[in-house]
Amino acid sequence: MINLKNYVTVLKRYEDELRIQKLGACWLFSQSQMKDHGCKRKWSYSHVIGIDEDSTSGALLYGVGWHVIMEHALLRIMNNDKCITEEEGLEYCETVARDYLNSEYDNLPMEEIYKQEWIEETIERYKRGIIGWVKHWDRVHKEYQVVAVEKTLVAPIIDPNTKDIYKPRSKFVLEKDYLYPCGINDKGDIIDLEMPYYKIGRADAIVVKRGTKSLFILDHKTTSQPKTYSKKLTFDMQLASYCALLNYEMIEGELKHLKDHIISGVIWDLCHSKIPSRPSLLKSGKLSQAKNKTMPSWIFEEAIQHYELDREEYIDHLNDLKVTDHNYFQLLEVSVSYKDMHRAYLEDYATAKSMHETRINLYHCSDIEFNYKAPRYPICEQYQHCKFSKYCLPNIDISKIDETRIKKDKKIHWRVLTDKSECIILDKEGKQISLPF
Ligand code: SF4
């Protein structure tokens, strides 16, 4: 007999979340896992077999570091209900961003001798960006009030036929203090029991339009091409899904204090990732004011001060540059309706069901069967970016995959809580008698 209620779900990236602990043992999937599941083969490599192929890139590390700065900046904005100063922003670049980059030192995708130089250059890039972001948010903050930062949102997956939480019977490997999802042809102490499905996401921030009850989920995006990137907004399926999670949290979950608000949509806080550096002086000892030399006004302003030039001479040029400053930081707002959210709930159910079926199909699977139980995209558009392409393209048999690459704890597993509570009893056949939901 096992006491299921004493298990807590452990999910990569959400390890210490109190919100997850309160849910007990459950399947949790995120929007990125949902996206991965578009290619069943990719999802199976990662989430069923558990191949550990962590990959990183300079662009990804830059984006995460910027995210860390934003988190601290928005927390302070929320707590004081006023925008941070440029000095505070610069301090975050030197403290929290530097700490983050140092913590990733071993993973930096370059030769050892270039690593420290890359960190210093990246911090300088953050500093060039944060000055513009503070100016931008000085205006944004007057329009929106930040009410939550880095908020984990979860909602149960509801079976539209039974109107109950979707909790199919799955197979697990039982070990002392741990429960693992069954992979392919796993052996050991296998039990099967019902486990409910939940969708999870983390909102960078939740904001309210001042003077109204309109709530928006705010998402940071860094890109080197903000103009073209903004076109993606209309097609981002994550938006409605996150609003659906927020809707559940407001009605049944942890955000009931916002119940009288209306979910209006999503805002992308779009930040340019390549802010130009300080311009050099011309031979004449002046700065170029050529019309084609576009750059943010605050970088030009800083150059005037740095070279101790007469600001009066550059007033017109500075005013021209200010007109295009919005190209570097933009707030894009898209509305999401309750109909969109309802569709997202149903699509989440479809994904959970499909994930469950894939797991069950793969429980017993030969090398040949893997080709149809975990098929590829009809046309793979990710081969250049897919970290599993080295297994997929040459079609390496699953029985030949290097054992050392397979992680036992996978992306999700369940750990026994030391703090005992009410029991959920399994009968002699391993059938579950009750669930904590
Ligand atoms: S290379 Fe393409 S088809 Fe193969 S696993 Fe990756 S995403 Fe799927």
Bound molecules: iron/sulfur cluster
Succession of helices and strands? EHEHHHHHEEEEEEHHEHHEHHHE
Cα separation of the termini: 19 Å
- Percent range for helical residues? 25-40%
Strand content: 15-25%
| Outline | globular
Structural class: alpha+beta
Rg is 25 Å
DSSP summary: helix tally: 13
Topology, number of strands = 11
Low-confidence stretches: 420-437
- Mean pLDDT level: 87
Largest sheet: 6 strands, mixed
List the helices and strands and how they pair.
Layout: E1 7-11, H1 18-23, E2 27-29, H2 31-36, H3 40-49, H4 58-80, H5 86-103, H6 112-143, E3 144-156, E4 169-175, E5 178-181, E6 190-194, E7 197-209, E8 214-223, H7 226-229, H8 238-251, E9 262-272, H9 297-306, H10 315-323, E10 329-335, H11 338-362, H12 370-373, H13 389-392, E11 412-416
Parallel strand pairs: 2-7, 8-9
Antiparallel strand pairs: 1-11, 3-7, 4-5, 4-6, 5-11, 7-8, 9-10
The protein binds iron/sulfur cluster.
What features would you describe in this structure?
With 437 residues, the chain is α+β, with helices and mostly antiparallel strands. The chain has a domain at 4-55 and 153-200 and 344-416. The chain contains 13 helices and eleven strands. It has helices spanning 18-23, 31-36, 40-49, 58-80, 86-103, 112-143, 226-229, 238-251, 297-306, 315-323, 338-362, 370-373, 389-392, and strands spanning 7-11, 27-29, 144-156, 169-175, 178-181, 190-194, 197-209, 214-223, 262-272, 329-335, 412-416. The strands form two sheets. Strands 2, 3, 7, 8, 9 and 10 form a six-stranded mixed sheet that branches. The longest helix is centred in the N-terminal third of the chain and has 32 residues, at 112-143. The radius of gyration is 25 Å and the shape is globular. Iron/sulfur cluster is lined by residues 39, 41-42, 376-377, 380, 382-383, 386, 388-389, 392.
